[in-house]
Amino acid sequence: MLVLVINSGSSSLKYQVRETTTEEVLLSGLVERIGEAEVPDHAAALETVEAHLNRVLGDRAIEAVGHRVVHGGERFTTPVLITHEIVRAIERLAPLAPLHNPAAALGIRALLEKWPKLPQVAVFDTAFHRTLPEHAWRYAVPDDLYKLHGVRRYGFHGTSHDFVTGRAAELLGIERGRFRAVIAHLGNGASVTAIRDGRSIDTSMGYTPLEGLVMGTRSGDLDASIVTQLVIRGEYTAEEMDRILNKDSGLKGLSGDNDMRSVVEAAAEGHDGAELALEVASYRLQKYIGGYHVAVGGAQAIVFTAGIGENSWPFRQRVVDGLGALGVTLDQMSNVERSQEARIISGPDSAIPVLVVPTDEESEIARATEELALAG
């Protein structure tokens, strides 16, 4: 089946066409600067996508569309065929993912308008984490905050964590249903997930994608009273604090730059802020890995994935250097090797294998889309 995979942002639209029978990627692209004169809206962006499809596919036609949607709340536990009611439900979840769900809905509406007869499927980043036990997803706040406002841990990057879990288990020759691991999805947004019996049992992102690890521009974990005190004292508005914590913090807040490559280079040149950013980010991840190693009952693998996890060998080195208490070591040559293949990078004496597994969220979205399109 020819599946068009769409990842809609507020100012960009990433797309890929996959042949699901062969898993071949036939084309991919990115439309940027949506909202500016040349690309005023998502409908205009789809004109660019359609022109690319026609050039490459010729007479072959797209048979289904799969959309990445960040937040499914408690309603969406599995991928769903899209209807107008489903789009409205995605929009209603916007307060939980204000940077993502509104943009996804815009892309979906534009595609429904352009190709109304094509089966379209929403695949939710939060769905993989619906296996969390209540003691992991509950916050210790009054029950009404959960019952009335849905305040709980949802988790994100689930499509990636799901794919990487299966691939890592396969690489180690372990049946997925018996696999225990700690998966670190490290990109501009970053999260780490505890995997037991092949399923998510805890994850670092929470009610929104802000909680957890130090990210490109997000703070990750911090004392909530920082926000309330600064707002109560009139130093900042709630909106200003939201912007600071989501867009001006993390690596950017500590070093002035949110790009890990630039931060690593600056640290090597003696930039104190960059060095501090790397120390804080690696230490935060080390704490999560140690905690999740306990949570899963002893990890059979520590897995790095996504842009930083796959490509930044210096950051992997920093993280693993702090895991000596777990008996984890790296093979230096394997760690610095440039490869697009899933591989083991730990030393022969490492108590826990350390893996690099390239993620492929589009593959998971295409697979789920094909399954629902055929069933529907």
Q: Any idea of the CATH class of the largest domain?
A: Alpha Beta
Main sheet makeup:
6 strands, mixed
Helix content estimate: 40-55%
CATH third-tier fold name of the largest domain:
Nucleotidyltransferase, domain 5
Strands side by side in the biggest sheet: 3-2-1-4-6-5
Number of separate helices: 15
Q: What is the CATH architecture term of the largest domain?
A: 2-Layer Sandwich
What's the assembly state of these chains?
Answer: single chain
Percent strand: 15-25%
Number of strands: 12
End-to-end C-alpha gap = 14 Å
CATH superfamily of the largest domain: ATPase, nucleotide binding domain
Q: What is the average per-residue confidence, as pLDDT, rounded to a whole number?
A: 94
- Using only C-alpha atoms, the radius of gyration works out to 21 Å
Shape: globular
Number of domains: 2
By secondary-structure content and strand pairing, the structural class works out as alpha/beta
Q: How would you sum up this structure in a few lines?
A:
The protein is of the alpha/beta class. It has 15 helices and twelve strands.
